[in-house]
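Troubleshooting log. The previous structure file for this entry was overwritten by mistake, so regenerating from the original sequence record. Sequence copied from the archived sheet and checked twice against the printout by T.R.
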Amino acid sequence: MNIEKVNLSNPFEIKEVTEFLAKFELKYDTNIDYTVVIRENDKIIATASKEKNIIKCFAIDPARQGEGISGSILTNITNKMFDQGYFHSMVFTKTKNQDIFRGIGYKEVAQTDKVILMEMGTNSIDKTIDKIKKSIDMKKQKAMIVMNCNPFTYGHLYLIEKASKENEEVLIFVVEENKSVFPFSIRFELVKEGVSHLKNVKVVSGSEYMISSATFPNYFLRKEDDSLIEYTKLDATISGKQFAKKLAITKRYIGEEPYCKVTKKYNEALMKILPQYGVEVVLVPRKELNNTAISASIVRDKLKNGKLEELKALVPKTTFDFLISPEGKEIEEKLKSSNLPH
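Regenerated output below.
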């Protein structure tokens, strides 16, 4: 059977794939950069897509399963990743598909009752966690916080300082996904500089496994669709089953979310799932200024509107110094022409 590459610029071809996926209660993802199909009598009987190193939108006509079609189409996708320099791939799929992916070498990262995240290649979640282990004291009682910090504010610092006072060691996982107006490298450094006075706090990368395109794409799109619950459950499960369990983390601190419904749903998932892995979830009221919760979105809004002096009350000096630097000015200009939720 011939595997055909879909022309992503052709609305008719995309419509065909979208309609085929709908039969499986799947939606075609707008971030996809490569799609292939297999046809029989001009009708699609199988399809698979990818976004960078993540396999998405995989479906095969039930009547044609077990004929080796899945292996052929997934091998095509994997080879495309190799050609583009991706030697570690991930797939977010329905739990019932796991045997298909196991058959070509994928291993489980975590799963819920409905979906599973699997991976294959040069990297793995175990390698990522082992790297973190080398920089921490496994004997100390530990708490964790996951933050995007776009950019780092007094609200973030307030939460970290509270955790620092209440625990022997605190790990700050900075979201690595580069879908925020402040790039990861800048956000990471601003957090490190902002907490440098807290000797029991360590700042590490959130990697591909925490709030990423693979585990929680809705976070960056602020989408409240029917996949949101499964994404929040999966990300929370990875946090508990993998990171907390293997790094001896007993607490996770989260801030109350008065503004964003997606983050609020995520918090609810964390409070339900993490205790199952022996992790206490500590929900902390947001730090306020003039009866308004300090948030990175407010900081970005003021930066966008050139209200630099008002930022001094919202961000640490390290963040403010960056915002008025030439590099910070570039981000300010980017904000003025952007409507990104992050």
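Residues 322 and 328 are 6 Å apart (CA to CA). Archived copy saved in two places this time.
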